[in-house]
Amino acid sequence: MSFTKLRCFALPLLVLVTLALAPHSPSIDHVTGKLAGRVIDQNGAVIPNVKILVESKTFEIKVTSDDDGNYAVELPAGSYRLSVDDPRFHKFGKKNVRVESSRPTKLDIRLKFLGPIHQ
User: Structural domain tally of the chain?
Assistant: First the structure.
């Protein structure tokens, strides 16, 4: 067999073997999960327009609660820390919030007003 014929046969075969043995990437649907909840005050009233920071060691996103106090975000499955730093409320932080691809994670955020400032 000549070198040219061998090359024409070997190259497509090499490509097919490489594709067959390459790891398959899972669909994005299988590696993301949903984190959702409602932002409320100490009396249970909804709080709109609150900025929530969701972060992990490799990922960070900010989400804002809607007019009904609801928030929702699609995230890679993993463990997250949530925080709210709003001048109207005491700081809020929650560590080790698990987001799984198999089911939505619900987390309501209860904030406490700072109250009047006395001088």
Answer: 1
Q: What is the CATH number of the domain that holds 51?
A: 2.60.40.1120
What residue numbers bound the domain in which 43 lies? 28-111
| Alpha-helical segments (H) within 29-115 | none
- Does the global pTM surpass 0.85? no
Q: Which amino acid is at 102?
A: S
The C-alpha atoms of residue 107 and residue 40 are separated, in whole angstroms, by: 11
Q: Which two tokens stand for residue 87?
A: 């001048």
Task: Round the average pLDDT of the chain to a whole number and report it.
Answer: 82
Cα angle vertex 99, ends 87, 41, to 5°? 30
Distance separating alpha carbons of residues 108 and 36, to the nearest angstrom = 8
Listed in sequence order, the residues at least 6 apart from 70 whose beta carbon sits closer than 8 Å to its beta carbon are: 36, 37, 38, 39, 46
What is the distance between the terminal CA atoms of the chain, rounded to a whole angstrom?
Answer: 95
What is the tens place of the pLDDT at every residue in 63-115?
Answer: 999 999 999 999 999 999 999 999 999 999 999 999 999 899 999 999 999 87
